[in-house]
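Hey, resending since the last one bounced:
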Amino acid sequence: MKFSTTILSVSLACLFLLAFSSAFAQPREVPQALKGSFAVMFPDAQNLDWAVKDDGFECEFTVNGLESEVKYDLSGNILVVERGLKEDELPVEVASYISAHFPELSFMEASEVVEGEVTVYEVDLEGNGVETELLFSSTGQLLHSEQESLED
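The structure tokens again:
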């Protein structure tokens, strides 16, 4: 009798652990429905590189040779879209600021980052052995600037 009670207790504990762990288990692959909605939203995307993260999914890809990335939560809602930009695609206010304050630096790359209702622009410039990373608001206001030596 004691043996069967122990087996029953162990069996119930195993069932509980199995149910509990599967309720919080992370997906192991990107759902096909998410891939389908991605294809509709980004029809020109190439070189797709999907990843499953603890908090959702992300896809790195290129459009017209420019790197982009989209991040989703576990429910498939878009969290962040980062789209690579050519220099001539930057907003006029951002381009004007760069021309006025960094005329000696050369354009490396840029991206538009949309997170919810907020859009910012990241711009990387180089010159004089230094890489300068700039972050602008959607209105062209410089929010952050950081420099790093290229000689490392």
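The longest helix spans residues 2-23.

Sorry for the duplicate.
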